[in-house]
Amino acid sequence: MSGELGTIVVVEDDANIADLVDMYLRREGFRVVQATTGEAGLAVIERERPRLAILDIGLPGAIDGLELCRRVRARHALPVIMLTARDGEVDRVLGLELGADDYVTKPFSPRELVARVRAILRRSDGHTSGGRSEVLMAGRVEVDLSRHEARVDGQVVPLASREFQLLAFLAERPGRALSRQQLLDGVWGPGWYGDDRTVDAHVRNLRKKLGDALPLHTVWGMGYRLG
Ligand code: CA
Fold first, then answer.
1. 129 CA to middle of ligand 1, Å?
2. Closest CA to 66 of 105, 92, 88
3. How far apart (Å, rounded) are the C-alpha atoms in residues 114 and 30?
4. Distance 95 CA to ligand 1 centre (A)
């Protein structure tokens, strides 16, 4: 299960802390890439395009955690959690003013950090600031457009390609009643000659696989509505 929840970059020069955080995140199913300086952190974030970054404020070299946060946030809508050794308000406020999503003060419980990671990812999946969201929420189902993956409670639910396309089409139009013909045109394409039973069969599969995590309603005499 390692890595299925995506990549998290940890920039921390204290190897003990970095390894501890690394271990807990891996156990949760994340892939972790570490860096020990701000410069290396920047490069790793550009290369890996992680889902989230955890940045220690006190880093050796020319780019400390605050500067790293500033630079990263200037370019990406990447969620950031800051680690600070000092309990001072300055670090906290600075961290948040720089656009960090959250912070934890050392010493911290790795479990708490993981809980915050999960909370921030849930939040940012729903509405990524700027740009098109790559992960849509459909009830309790995460519809990951970039990875072509559906997840419930962090677990990937295997879907056939057309099932995923139907799910994504619905998730992009929450609350709208869509006729079977609209779904056929949108998902299978206008050149596809099929009938309503094709749509019904795929909806049945989605319901079977995703269960009550997916609020997919039948609009009688017409089609379907998500949410
Ligand atoms: Ca440090």
1. 29
2. 92
3. 10
4. 15
CATH architecture of 7-126: 3-Layer(aba) Sandwich (3.40)
> Separation of 13 CA from ligand 1 center, angstroms?
5
Q: What does the domain layout of the chain look like in residue ranges?
A: 7-126, 129-226
Rounded Cα distance, 46 and 71, in Å: 11
**The CATH number of the domain covering residues in 129-226:** 1.10.10.10
Token code pair at residue 154 = 């962090």
Pair 99, 69: CB distance under 8 Å:
yes
Q: How many helices (H) and strands (E) does the chain have?
A: 8, 12
pLDDT in tens, the chain (227 residues): 557 889 999 999 999 999 999 999 999 999 999 999 999 999 999 999 899 999 999 999 999 998 898 888 777 778 889 898 876 655 555 655 676 777 888 888 898 899 889 888 877 665 444 444 588 889 999 998 888 889 998 899 988 888 998 999 999 898 999 999 899 888 887 777 777 788 999 999 999 999 999 999 999 989 999 99
The CA-atom distances, in angstroms, between 63 and each of 59, 81, 107, 128, 179 are 7, 17, 23, 26, 54
| Bridge partner list, 151 | 142, 156
